[in-house]
Amino acid sequence: MTNKIWVYIDHFKGKAIPASWEAIGAGKSLAEKLGGGVTALVFGQNVEDLARQAFASGADDVLLGDDPVLADYRPEPYAALLARLSRASQPEVILFPTTVRGRELAAMSAVDLKTGVMPDAVALDVVDGAVIVTRPVYAGKLLSQARCSARPQLITLRGRVFQAPAVDTGQTGSPTRVDTSGLADTVQSEVVEYIHGEEGVSLTDAAVIVSGGRGLANNPSLTPPAGMDEKQAEVWRAQQGFQQLGELASVLGAAVGASRAAVDAGYIPYEHQVGQTGKVVSPDLYIAVGISGAIQHLAGMRSSKTIVAINKDPDAPIFKLARFGLVGDLNEILPQLTQAFRQKLGK
After folding, report:
1. Which of 112, 132, 145, 249 has the greatest number of C-beta atoms within 10 Å?
2. What is the pLDDT of residues 117-170, one digit of tens each?
3. SS3 label, residue 23
């Protein structure tokens, strides 16, 4: 019997994105209500080890598409293969992690399969055989519920919301190798090179995030190097502030985030941006330093379990969302907070 629930395993060069295992956990919960098991979709080249990990992480079956054409992620052959398999087996639901690749693949597959996508799910339920998806709307101010009348139902899942199953290395299986012939004919794009960003904790996977905003540039006690104009001095001060922020993140084992305003001002690269036009995150702890709380930023982090805000403006919107707030000069608070965590954590 074909499993009704499929889960796409997103990976980079054979290393799975943690949200993929969370998607298997969500899939197993749905399978209990819809019947059947969970099938993992593993596409790539030389990814047999990833298939073994999928079994150990709770998959009941694995469809393995292993082909040189799939060595680099390109949406055309990946979507063509997924659509081909779906037409042949007709699953009820296909789950994807809400990553850049996952969102793109879900959207392209929906076009091929003439169905819809329900993105960024934070909760799932089943009513009369249909999956009910709960997802944020209006920049996270409200939650809406939706269902898809077409089949298969394609759903992307917000990371760090669903529980990944415990890994059981004793759970094994033999993946089903699928036909990948003809995929080369679908290719319309080429991967030219990979440019690696800064090393560090991934924002989307981080349990703790320390984020900075434009307030990090407000430290008049710092004297910039001679010859800098006003704008250059502002950026230099902000970069010193982000260095302090990085020290706190290092003590906490956290990722460093930033508001769009800080990124647009040139204080820190885009890969650190949290918000509606950056990364959507759901850490256990989010510390916002010098961030006023524009609605676009709140949309990207409001599902954090605990939010701590540090800002000199007591009326800053971020305080309405924060569980704990510190009103004061971040240049005084940040070093003290870092030192307190060092002592508490013995670092």
Report:
1. 249
2. 999 999 999 998 889 999 998 878 889 999 999 999 999 999 999 999 999 999
3. helix
